[in-house]
Amino acid sequence: MAAVIESKVHPAFEQLRSHRIDTLNLTVEEYRHKKTGARHLHLAADNDENVFFVALRTFPMDSTGVAHILEHTALCGSERFPVRDPFFMMIRRSLNTFMNAFTSSDWTAYPFASMNRKDFDNLLTVYLDSVFFSSLDPLDFAQEGHRLEFDKPNDPSTDLVYRGVVYNEMKGAMSSATSQLWQNLSSHLFPTTTYHYNSGGEPDHIVDLSYEDLLSFYRHHYHPSNATFATYGNIPAHEHHERFEELALKRFDRLDIDLPVHDEKRLFSPVRVEQGYAVSEQEETANKTHIVMGWLLGHSFDLQENLEGQLLASVLLDNSASPLMRALETTDIGHAPSPMCGIEDSNREMTFVCGIEGTEPEQQKALETLIEETLANVVKEGVSQERLEAILHQLELHQREIAGDQFPYGLQLIMSAISPMIHGGDPVELLDLEPVLDTLREKIRDPDYVPGLIRRKLLENPHRVTLTLRPDNQLESRRQEAIREALARRKAELTEKEVQEIIERAQALEERQTRKDDDSILPKVDLSDVPLQLPEPERRYDGDMAASLYARGTNGLVYEQIVLPVPDLSEDELVLLPYYTTLITEVGCGDLDYLGMQDRISAESGGVSVSFSAKGEVDDVQNLSGYMIFSGKALARNRGALTRLLGDLFNGARFDEHERIRELVAQVRARRDQAITGSGHGLAMGAASQGISPGAWLAFRLGGLEAIRGARSLDKSLDDDNELAAFCDRLAGLHSRIRQQNRQFLLIAEDEQLQPMLDEVKQHWSGQPEGKSEQWHLSQAPYQVNQAWLTSTQVNFCARAFPTVAVDHPDAAALTVLGGFLRNGYLHRAIREKGGAYGGGAGQDSVNGTFRFFSYRDPRLSETLDDFDQSLKWLQEEDHDAQELEESILGVIGQLDRPRSPAGAARHAFHNHLFGRSPEQRSRFRERVLAVTLEDMKRVARTWLTPDKASTAVITSHDNRELVQKLGLELQEL
After folding, report:
1. What pLDDT, on the 0 to 100 scale, is given for residue 7?
2. 504 contacts: CB under 8 Å, gap ≥ 6
3. What pLDDT is attached to residue 98?
4. How far is CA 571 from the centre of its chain?
5. Once rounded to an integer, what is the mean pLDDT over residues 790-799?
6. Of 121, 111, 119, 120, which Cα lies nearest the Cα of 409?
7. pLDDT at position 549, please?
8. Residue 839: partners with Cβ closer than 8 Å, 6 or more residues away
9. For the residues of 336-379, what is the DSSP string, one character each?
10. Cα–Cα distance between 876 and 821 in angstroms, integer?
11. Pairwise CA distance, residues 389 & 603, whole Å
12. What are the tens digits of pLDDT across the range 897-915?
């Protein structure tokens, strides 16, 4: 359905243009606020999920994290809502489908999305007041940013320490070698502009930020004249304007805001830099160096420059058949291409980066030579017309696809348009790619076009930095010693008055954190606003092919899956599955080697993948079933090619390219290593849950900490050619067994495409394999764990897990509501606000029958584990408000009703059916959630969350070895 174009314009605004984009089924409307000059981009679409987004250009000129800390602190109370924590309070009082705030390198944004109009209006009221009329209480700055406290806040004889949410968040973020790599490279590529600095904040610099600096930055940057508003959905623009004007804009006049916005001064000769990154003292440093090369390119907001940069990156790095990616994957200089490889176009000026990891510092010159020679060779030999057409095909497909399964679709569109708006470009051009793609199709007919781009933008571009980042197992101890000495000097210089001020501030902060605010001043939705359950996508079934068909508005794309039950695999074969699913789309197939197959996938589809999915039954988590899923998507004109591609992959994948498989395993190992600091809370929960059910054990072995350790061991073993050959044979054997299982098909497309798709499938596939499909059985005796996993990290991740029930058990609903209740009422305050962790919470995992507590980027260990226990005492001993229960129920319903993309909703419905999650069962669970009482939560906690059933796992640094041993945790080396 076409979006309604709204001609009505609010008198406070002027309409600059209206532009229809048929490929996206929306109309782009651009407005300017007459008085302040604030811009508004409205994407008018026939979609109930309305999105709001306001961005301020923020250009910090130091690494104190001022923009990031301000983003946090602005959400801690405002003029109209002078409560301590309106942002997190509104999360609980809302049916939002998305709520967050972002700090980018040169803008800060506050977005939300909701399908409920009342909820949207509530959130808009709070967001606009938070952004433009923030309280910025000094105690909130101390909590969210940084503060000095005594280790025991009321005891001045204890050491001085730094505390603060952003301080600990960035300690965690900058523990990652990849984060340090990007930040160090940026600092040298951009020696004079805002991108030289870490907008999130460097922990050692965060402590230099004063409260007065924060206020000054807010006054300078948080003004409508420096704001860009963006909205998406079916609320007309003039209705947004009425609320923008009434709630905020009418109180402001135009302000000329001086911001340090300019292009970087160009280097006239390449720069080479070597720096260290911290690893633990016990860690080996061999082959752990990263070397990357980065070039500064043109303006990201110039569409021609931007798409040429995208084309350049795709030609060189898109897949293993791309010349530069192939060179980086096959060289013996290092283990794997750097995760930094690609184009970065979110800054004012773009950067192109490539490099390697798992090498040594002395290989820097060899890598430069390899990259330069590869680029020169591409210039000399050119790029085939077929490959260039395939790249444009990918750009077209990416533009057409309606995403939104993880992130609201409207917000994705806004995020792609915001960069040109911030930097002075045209957002409509970037959204409406069709005319530009037509121009590019003309340009690529010239065989010298792409070689010319490579020559001008890379080979002849002297603004280039080569960064060598080597491991240093003494760096962290030197840093910590320097911090201790600085704090000791600071403490020795404190006057009695200053000592008392530190103690009084800590007391005042604790009082503020424990104060019960009057939250009735905040708007809310309640259970009467909860919508009816969304209807299921309609499924048609073709028994001849065991095919499920879903007609969905996919904007010209088709989706296909081949689904097979997992055969009865041994434990060794199960552990192979993640490698099998990763490698099968990266190896040769039939007569094509892996390079030819990569080209074919790119030319004929939007990508193919293989995955493994396992779940317990709705009433028994110990009874597991699992499926292998071969998936692909394509433009509708390529539907037949997609069916043949998936069929050939299924029937003809080869595991005989040993060196290729060796390279891929090294890449898998590198990616798994990098997951620890970003996903540590999930990994800790997985480790704590491992002994509770077969599904939890499987997740731990296949994707958890044990899988990371296993990847390191496997990677090392494959240096032996015989081991490598045996590994490849095992993959081929596993593939052969999977192919013998009975197949069924999932087809998703617009209605007119479904029958032709089904005809293609019937033409390509005939019957089922001979013999009966094997039945998979996995039994795992329950066991408890108490583990501490040691790695290189400046922060901790804590988890505790209890065995509970499957989703259809009557207690599952109360346990699910209990997770949000504990987080909202106790854990958020104790772990984040008081403890300084970036996050913490609890939740029921009914798929695996576990209830799990967690903390994320946490400076504490034993205290957090105590907080998990104390939250259960708080539940039983304190009086609780019915409003708190209602908020937790709303949170669960919001997750259950979360909108998905058209194709995603169909996939979700099909896989629910596959695993026995019927509409009736889900409706029953929803009704139970709505009926949960306070006594239900107390009862299920007493029944299931008892200390004798608890399992505990933490991820921490080697420095905490003695502490975790005192806690009775078994040491595990990562």
Report:
1. 60
2. none
3. 94
4. 31
5. 93
6. 111
7. 97
8. 681, 831, 832, 855, 856, 857
9. EE-TT-EEE-SSSEEEEEEEEEEE-GGGHHHHHHHHHHHHHHHH
10. 12
11. 7
12. 888 999 999 999 999 999 9
Please give the Cα distance from 603 to 393 (Å, whole number): 7
Residue 756 tokens read as: 């032709």
Helix, strand, or coil (residue 720): coil
Task: Spell out the long-range contacts of 190-196 with Cβ–Cβ below 8 A and sequence spacing 24 or more.
Answer: 190/264, 190/296, 191/264, 191/265, 192/264, 192/265, 193/260, 193/262, 193/263, 193/264, 193/348, 194/59, 194/60, 194/61, 194/105, 194/106, 194/260, 195/105, 195/106, 195/264, 195/347, 195/348
Amino acid identity for residue 779 in this structure? S
Give the chain's length.
Answer: 974
DSSP-based helix, strand, coil % in the chain, nearest 5: 50, 20, 30
H runs (alpha helix) in 704-852: 705-717, 721-739, 751-764, 812-822
Average pLDDT score over residue span 715-728 = 96
- Cβ neighbours of residue 722 under 8 Å, at least 6 residues apart? none
Q: What is the rounded distance in angstroms from the CA atom of residue 519 to the CA atom of residue 509?
A: 19
Closest to 792 (Cα-Cα) out of 202, 144, 276: 276
Contact at 8 Å (CB) between 74 and 219?
no
| Beta strand pairing call for 970-973 and 147-150 | unpaired
Paired tokens of 844: 């029921």
Q: Are 387 and 447 in contact (CB under 8 A)?
A: no
Q: Give φ, ψ of 464 to 5 degrees.
A: -140, 140
Answer whether 0.70 is exceeded by the pTM. Answer: yes
Q: Give the tokens for residue 506.
A: 């800590």
The predicted model gives 204-221 an average pLDDT of 97
**What letters, b where the CB count within 10 A reaches 16 and e where it falls short, cover 221-246?**
bbbbebbbbbbbbebbbbebbebbbe
**In the sheet that 850-856 helps form, which strands lie side by side, from edge to edge?**
839-845, 850-856, 797-803, 951-957, 786-791, 970-973
Name the pLDDT band for 339 (thresholds 50, 70, 90): very high
CA-to-CA distance for 590 and 482, rounded, in angstroms?
A: 60
pLDDT in tens, 84-101: 889 999 998 899 999 999
Measured distance CA(922)–CA(912) in Å, rounded: 9
Cβ-Cβ contacts under 8 Å for 958 (sequence gap 6 or more):
280, 281, 282, 790, 791, 792
CA distance 267 to 294: 12
Residue 233 pLDDT exceeds 50: yes
Radius of gyration of the chain from Cα atoms?
28
